[in-house]
């Protein structure tokens, strides 16, 4: 049964009237986060259904302490029961008794990400993001898999029955690492990229209606793919099949349409926005609309398809230098919030995590796209590979919904990536460094390179990030 037919509404619905707030204990691993943690705090302040205790653990204790103070400020403006925030010094103290675990870490430093992008660029491989696939995503995964495996084992020891939400990229590989290190884990990967196409569809419907009647939360889509390379083959809004309208929208905007992040400044939009030309071109090529943003979609295909000329395709390459400046800005804002110098705002974000938690706690049902091991929800992809489709959240748990089959051609591309991601995870978990370079060389962004040149690039990238690698992977090149 398709996701759009499983609940009264995709991403909003069937939430019960809750007389008393639901108590929930949240362990936040990476609790010094400057992006996802403040977003969660604003969402909890806006929400009226949960009575949350949040324990923040971070390798940087000062960052966790700052965020605990910041969380206290958000609690002051709460619409419901104020959440309580506490920084804790160890994973055990964060995890014991937790109902929900949120994993949001930076695998390495921005300096490492700069090498992930800069070294391939010198070899003629531009990357728009560099955190999911391609050479940058591959080496980032090598750093991060052991970290996520360690977190999963700690969850198995201290919170084996907790629900676990992974927010860390590369999403597919790292969600797989949680399941591989602790097979009993109840974990899913959460990503907001599909929001982009849902926002477009709501805009189309509002233009037709002549008023702002619909939001992206009203749009139902059937999601198929792997993280950051997602597609939709059914779209519904208010009972109306929106695929014909979306097809007309794409045809009418052959020169592109601006896709930006609400509330962000012009510089952010220059690096993170797009004209959706990649999305529309993939629609023409495969007969199915792309759901993720163009910057991500482009990285799953050979350099010559889109990345060789991003200007032509209307998207930018996000420089690490901008990310570093943006991180400093976020840090300054967090410190000002924690110190009471600026006022927090209880505001609902685009993220689905709060609704997912409420549903898992018995507060109703909720459908959204998530990353889970394949149990047949995506046809033709091996069982156990991490795929992104819709799932039903309820008091019974997380139930993947059958998405169907991808179009021929597109299926082959996604199956190739899914197999490589699974093999990469297996090799790193087993410490089989010798298996890594062949996988690295098979990536569509790398496979055009002569083996000697690709191996030299891989060696430079391994050397640049060796401080974060286990000993048995340092000689992988």
TrEMBL record:
Chain residues that bind substrate: 169
Name recorded for this polypeptide: Alpha-galactosidase
Alphabetical UniProt keywords: Carbohydrate metabolism, Cobalt, Glycosidase, Hydrolase, Iron, Manganese, Metal-binding, NAD, Nickel
UniProt entry tagged with the keyword Disulfide bond: no
Annotated positions binding Mn(2+): 191, 228
Cofactor(s) the protein requires to work: NAD(+); Mn(2+)
Source species of the chain: Allosediminivita pacifica
Entry note: cofactor: Binds 1 NAD(+) per subunit.
Highest rank taxon of the organism: Bacteria
The UniProt record lists the keyword NAD: yes
Residue(s) at site: Increases basicity of active site Tyr: 131
GO molecular function: hydrolase activity, hydrolyzing O-glycosyl compounds; metal ion binding; oxidoreductase activity, acting on the CH-OH group of donors, NAD or NADP as acceptor
Domain (Glycosyl hydrolase family 4 C-terminal): residue spans on this chain: 223-446
Family statement: Belongs to the glycosyl hydrolase 4 family.
GO biological process: carbohydrate metabolic process
InterPro entries, A to Z: GH4_Enzyme_sf, Glyco_hydro_4, Glyco_hydro_4_C, Lactate_DH/Glyco_Ohase_4_C, NAD(P)-bd_dom_sf
Pfam families: Glyco_hydro_4, Glyco_hydro_4C
């Amino acid at each position: 049964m398709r996701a759009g037919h499983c609940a009264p509404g995709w991403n909003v619905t069937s939430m019960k009237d809750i007389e008393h707030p639901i108590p929930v204990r949240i362990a936040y691993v990476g609790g010094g986060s400057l992006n996802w943690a403040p977003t969660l705090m604003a969402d909890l302040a806006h929400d009226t259904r949960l009575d949350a205790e949040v324990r923040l653990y971070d390798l940087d204790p000062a960052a966790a302490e700052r965020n605990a103070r910041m969380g206290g400020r958000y609690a002051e403006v709460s619409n419901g029961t104020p959440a309580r925030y506490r920084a804790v010094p160890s994973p055990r103290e964060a995890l014991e008794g937790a109902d929900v675990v949120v994993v949001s870490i930076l695998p390495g430093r921005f300096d490492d990400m700069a090498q992930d992008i800069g070294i391939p660029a010198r070899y003629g491989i531009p990357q728009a993001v560099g955190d999911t696939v391609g050479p940058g995503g591959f080496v980032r995964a090598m750093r991060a898999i052991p970290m996520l495996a360690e977190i999963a084992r700690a969850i198995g020891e201290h919170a084996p029955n907790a629900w676990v939400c992974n927010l860390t990229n590369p999403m597919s590989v790292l969600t797989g690492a949680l399941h591989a290190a602790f097979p009993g884990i109840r974990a899913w990967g959460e990503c907001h990229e599909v929001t982009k196409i849902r926002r477009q569809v709501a805009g189309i419907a509002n233009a037709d209606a002549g008023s702002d009647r619909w939001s992206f939360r009203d749009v139902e889509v059937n999601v198929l793919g792997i993280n950051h390379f997602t597609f939709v083959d059914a779209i519904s809004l208010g009972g109306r099949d929106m695929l014909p309208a979306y097809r007309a929208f794409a045809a009418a905007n052959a020169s592109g349409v601006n896709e930006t992040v609400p509330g962000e400044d012009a510089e952010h939009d220059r690096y993170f926005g797009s004209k959706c030309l990649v999305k529309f071109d993939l629609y023409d090529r495969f007969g199915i609309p792309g759901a993720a943003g163009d910057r991500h979609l482009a990285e799953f295909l050979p350099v010559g398809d889109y990345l060789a000329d991003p200007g032509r395709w209307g998207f930018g390459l996000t420089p690490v230098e901008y990310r570093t400046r943006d991180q400093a800005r976020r840090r300054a804002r967090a410190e000002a919030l924690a110190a009471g110098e600026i006022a927090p705002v209880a505001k609902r974000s685009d993220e689905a995590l709060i609704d997912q938690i409420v549903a898992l706690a018995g507060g109703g049902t909720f459908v959204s796209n998530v990353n889970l091991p394949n149990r047949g929800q995506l046809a033709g992809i091996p069982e156990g590979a991490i795929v992104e489709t819709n799932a039903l959240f309820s008091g019974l748990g997380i139930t993947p919904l059958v998405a169907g089959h991808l179009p021929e051609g597109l299926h082959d591309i996604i199956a190739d990536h899914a197999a490589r991601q699974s093999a990469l995870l297996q090799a790193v978990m087993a410490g089989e460094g010798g298996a890594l370079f062949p996988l690295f060389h098979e990536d569509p962004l790398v496979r055009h390179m002569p083996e000697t040149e690709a191996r030299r690039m891989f060696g430079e990238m391994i050397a640049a990030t060796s401080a974060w690698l286990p000993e048995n992977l340092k000689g992988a090149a």
